[in-house]
Specification:
This protein is mainly alpha-helical and 253 residues long. It contains ten helices and no strands. It is 81% helix and 0% strand.
């Protein structure tokens, strides 16, 4: 089964080119900035928002302004690849139905559950690993060997935050997007975004926003409630979405 899963993940990477194009573009931007700093007109004397300030340990390793700017760029890398994960999840099952390739893949000795699992692995395992690798590449491009010290401190703070975002926010979000990708007849993007908006409106009108703030708003904007119950509710919601997506796919002829 592991070999089949690896083969399915490889297929996803080959078919969805943005999974590797976006990291290349981000690394290319870092190279352009490095060349401009060395030979062009890019100066490092600029203001960085206070929310991207990093501690004195990093400031002592490299120039504080450069370190804060690099920290800001690494956050952009994370956000950009999470956006790729969401759009990939919205299209992964829908595209198979549009080009009729779902009929071919379902004829192979691969279960629907394993197929959906491969797409979850790409969105929730491969892309986070790409985030870490891309951040490391950007850091080495801009800092050279000093990046070792920078990354040891940066990852000490950022990896725990990345794990929290994955478990509390991205898992239910990706599960919902995969379900929308499977059940949407025309446009999974509209279903994925309009349905939560309608939920928020109805919830605000009748339940004072209790449901929508727990399931949607806190997970996507300023989420800071890293306690057990939101994790449990998110896990139950994710399991339900994945189960429905697998069931729906298995019913297709």
């Amino acid at each position: 089964m592991i070999n089949k899963l690896i083969a399915l993940v490889k297929r996803e990477v080959l078919e969805h080119k943005n999974l590797w194009r976006v990291p290349i573009i981000l690394i290319g931007i870092a190279v352009l900035l490095r060349v401009s700093m060395a030979f062009g007109n890019l100066a490092i004397e600029f203001d960085v928002p206070s929310e991207f300030e990093i501690d004195s340990k990093v400031d002592s390793i490299v120039n504080g302004v450069v370190a804060r700017a690099l920290n800001f760029m690494n956050i952009i890398v994370m956000v950009a690849l999470f956006v790729v994960a969401i759009f990939y999840s919205l299209s992964c099952l829908y595209n198979e139905r549009q080009d009729q390739s779902v009929l071919f893949w379902r004829s192979l000795p691969v279960s629907d559950g394993l197929t959906v699992a491969s797409k979850l692995v790409v969105a929730l395992v491969l892309i986070p690993l790409l985030i870490v690798a891309c951040q490391a590449a950007v850091s080495f491009i801009l800092l050279d060997v000093t990046a070792f010290q920078y990354l040891s401190n940066y990852y000490g703070h950022s990896l725990s935050g990345l794990a929290k975002i994955l478990l509390w926010s991205m898992v239910p979000t990706i599960a919902w997007c995969v379900l929308c990708s499977e059940i949407a007849e025309k446009n999974p993007f509209l279903l994925a975004f309009i349905a939560p908006i309608l939920l928020v409106l109805v919830d605000k009108l009748f339940l004072n926003g209790v449901v929508s703030e727990t399931l949607i708003i806190n997970r996507l904007a300023g989420f800071d409630d890293y306690t057990v119950m939101p994790l449990v509710w998110g896990g139950l919601f994710s399991a339900a979405c994945i189960a429905l997506a697998i069931t729906k796919r298995s019913q297709r002829i």
